[in-house]
Write a structure and sequence with these properties.
- The protein is flat.
- Helices cover 57% and strands 3% of the residues.
- The chain has five helices and two strands.
- The longest helix has 22 residues, at 3-24.
- A two-stranded parallel sheet has the order 1-2.
- By secondary structure, it is mainly alpha-helical.
- Helix 1 packs parallel to helix 3.
């Protein structure tokens, strides 16, 4: 949620990308596809949002940060479906169970959505 929180983690996340840049190249789409990171910043302070946008400009994270509240049900279901498709494409038994990790704030509504997905 907070721009400050994301700014605090930005150097560590960018370092992770830099370590893998040699293997994957610099294409932001490829980095996003491999790491599947999405950050939704719902900061209400316009100065903090402007500072974060400025820091993101030109960064591999620039296309992974969204400044709006996500449609959580569509987001979770979409990411889970992507995981299932990608996993099924790499195994001989597409009917086996598929591992998927969703990290969220602990909101009961999101928990119920993940359970039902």
């Amino acid at each position: 949620r907070s721009a400050d929180l994301l700014l605090g983690h930005l150097p560590e996340i960018e370092m992770m990308f830099k370590r893998h840049k040699e293997d994957m190249g610099e294409a932001p789409v490829l980095l996003q596809r491999v790491f599947r990171l999405r950050f939704h910043c719902t900061e209400t302070d316009p100065w903090k949002v402007a500072k974060l946008k400025s820091m993101l400009r030109g960064s591999p994270l620039e296309h992974m940060v969204f400044f709006s509240r996500p449609q959580i049900d569509a987001l979770v279901k979409g990411l889970m479906c992507e995981g299932v498709r990608d996993f099924a494409a790499t195994v001989d038994k597409p009917d086996c169970s598929v591992p998927c990790l969703v990290t969220f704030c602990g909101n009961p509504e999101v928990s119920a959505l993940c359970r039902d997905a």
